Amino acid sequence: MFEHLTELYNNKELKDKWIWKHKDFLPPTVIVNDLPIHFSSAFKRIGISMSGGADSTLLAYILLKLITENKIDCKLYPFHMVRFADTKPWLEYIARDVWNWLDKKFPGILQPLEYGFIPSDLETLPLSVVNPKNFENVDFTRCNTDVLITQRFKEYFVKKHNLRFVYSGTTTNPPFDNNLNAPQFREADQTNLNPELVIAPAMINPFALITKDWVMAQYENFQIPELLNLTRSCEADSLQLDIHKWNPGRVYPKPCGECFFCKERDWGIVNSSKYVKSRPCYYALGGLNYKNGYVTSCPTQSDKLSILKDSYLPSEVFNSKNFLQHRLDLLSGKWPKGCDMCKHVEEAGAGLSMRKEEIPVLSHYNKETGTNGFEGLRTVEIRFSHSCNMACLHCSQVFSSGWLSKLKRYEPDEIDRKYELIQLTGEMHRQSPDDDLTISISTERALEIVEDLNANFPNLERVDFAGGEVLYQKQFFPTLERLAQHPNASNMMIMFHSNFNADFDPIRLSKLLANFGKPMIQMSIDSGPNMYSYFRDGNWEKLVENIKSFRTADNGKTEMNLVCTTGTYQIMEIEDIFKSFLQLDANHIQASIIFTPKYLNPALMKFLYAHEIKNDFKKVKIIIDKEHEKRLADVPKYKKLQSFKGTVKFPVWTDIETAYKSLQDIENYIWKTDIDEKYWHSFIQYVKKTDVIWKQSFNNSIKKYKLIKDKIVRVKDV
Ligand code: SF4
Fold first, then answer.
1. Residues 501-513: pLDDT tens digits?
2. Does domain 44-273 have CATH number 3.40.50.620?
3. Cα–Cα–Cα angle for 663, 567, 660, nearest 5°?
4. 0.90 exceeded by the pTM?
5. What is the 333 CA–ligand 1 centroid distance (Å)?
6. CATH architecture of the region 378-704
7. In angstroms, what CA-CA distances link 409 with 394, 405, 424?
8. Which of 220, 328, 331, 342 maximizes ligand 1 atoms within 8 Å of its Cβ, making it the mutation to test the pocket?
C-alpha cells in the first residue's frame, strides 16, 4: 500500500544526497503494517514528542513494541510541550495518562515524561517579530513563536539526553473541502511527498506523508482501543466548551466534535477500513443477542451462532464453538458472513459501523482460543416473541405477528418471486426455505436467563429488549423486575425498542425503569403524521398521547430517542418526518438505514429523483435551522425541553444536534451507495401488492409521489 514511500525512501540519489548534506548515516526502514518507518536496531537513546493525541501515542506504541519484540537495548525519552495551560489545562494530564498506560505495557523502556512550556502569549506572536537567528527552513511570515520555542526545546532535549533522533507523529491533512481551520503546513500540496519532512537531522516523522485513516486502523490492528480512548484530538478550549473551571482529577471535558481535529479523527475512523487487518468488536467479544430461535452477538449479526432449542442459558452459550470462531475471525481481520452490514457500512465509508460505535474490551479475551471470561459479557439483547400490535411495511412475519395475520391467506405468486419481494415470499429474516425458527422465549425461560445473568456475569452493563412490541408482551415487566436484582443494576443501561403505540401503564413502567442506572427508550417512529398509519399501521395521535403520559409519569428520568429507519418511503416524506420529530420533545433523533430488502433501500431514490431529493434534503436543513432559531429566540421557554443541555448563555438542544447528524448520515449513504436499478421496479410491485393486502392506498398517504399505472412519479412540491 505504501510502496511509493518505500521507493522514495530507498531512492539512491536522495539517500546519497542526504548523507552528503547532513554528514550522517540514514537509518533503515522497517515495515509496520505496510508503512515504512525509519528505525535502527542500533539506536540506544531516542526521543519522542508526546502530545497525548492519537498520532504521537500510536507512534510511541509502535516504537516501544519494536524495541520490546526485537529485544533492542534502547531507551525512549518522551517530552510533552505544555501549551494553552490557562485555557486547555487538561492536555498535560491526558499526555500523562497515555504515558502511564504505555509504561505499564512496556516496563523499563519509557523514561520519565518531561515537560516544555509555551506561554500562551507567545503562541500567537508572529515569528517575524522575534526574527530568530539560526532558524533555517522556516517561513517566518507563516509561523508563530510557538514553532521556535518547540524547536529550541527539542534541541535542548536532544543535547541533554544525547539522543540519536527525536520522533514526532504529524499526519498530512485529510482531503476535506474548505479546510479553513486545518493547519496549512499539513495540506497535501505542502507535504507533497517531500522526504525531508519525514527525516531530517535529529528528527523522524514517519507519518508526515500519510493521513489519519492509517493511524486509526492501527488501533484496531494492534487491538488497543482502550489506548485510543485515552488520547485526545480536540483543540477546543474552555470557552468553546463552556467550562468555567477545571481541576486535575476531574473528568476530562468531552471533545467538541466540531473543530478540525475532531473532524479529522472521525474521518480517520470512518475511512480506516482499507488498512484494517484485525476487527475487534465490542459485540463479538461481549454480546449475546437472542433472536428468532438462535443466539448471536449483536442486533445486526445474522449467523446462527447457537440454536436456542439446544441451549439458552448465557453461561452455556457465551463460549460455545461458533462464538469462539466468530471472535477469532473478526480479530484476524476476516468478516464473518453475518457481519455483512458492518462490512457494507465500513467499505462504503457511510458513517460509523455498529462495530465502531463501542470500544471493545479485550481484558478477559484469550487470543489463541477465542474464549472470553464471563467478566467479558457486557451486553445482552432479548426478544421474547414476535407479538406486535403493528405490521410496518419494512418488517416481516419473523418479527411481527401483525405481518403473520396480514399474510394469513396470502399465497406468494410469480410476481413476488420475479421481483424478489422477500417479505411476501417469506424469505426475509430467514436463511433458507426450511428455516422456520421463531422468536419464542416464555416468561419462565426469560426469568431463568436473567437469573443466570445475575449470578454469573458481574460486568453486564447494558440490556436491550426488542420485539415484536415489548409493551404488548406479558414477559417484559416480570423480566425487568428480576433483572433489577443484578449486582450492577444501578449502573446498567436498560433500553427497549418500541413503537410506543401499545396500551401500557406509564407509572409502572417508569417505576421499573428507575431501578436501573440509565433507562432509555428507542422509539421506532419511521414516519411523520402523513404516512404513519400507512407505513406503520398505527395511530399518530395515540403515539403523541403515549409519549405525553409517560413523560408526566417519569419526569424526564428516562432518555427517549426517536428513530427513523430510513428507506424509500421515508425519503419520499423526509420533510414531514423531521418536522414532526422536532415537535416530539425527544432527547435524540436518530436514523438507521434499511439495507434489506433491497427494494426498500433509500439509495434507490436517486435513480429517478436525485435532483428532487437533494432539494428535499436542503428543505429539511432549513426546517431544522428554523426550529433552532425559534428556540434560540426564547431560551427560557425552550429550556424546559427534554433535549436541553448547556446553559442559557450557550444553549444546546440534543435533538437539533442529532437531527443534523442523522440527515447527514442518510445523505452520505445515498450518494455513496451503488444499488441495482432493477430494485426500483421491485419497489413499485411491492407498493402495488401491499396496497391490496393492507387494504390501503399509497396515493392517499404519500404527498409528493403517486403511483400511476406502473410508475411512481413525483407530482408536485408541497
Ligand atoms: S462486526 Fe458488526 S455485525 Fe459483526 S458482531 Fe460486530 S457489530 Fe455485529
1. 999 999 999 999 9
2. yes
3. 5
4. no
5. 12
6. Alpha-Beta Barrel (3.20)
7. 20, 8, 12
8. 342
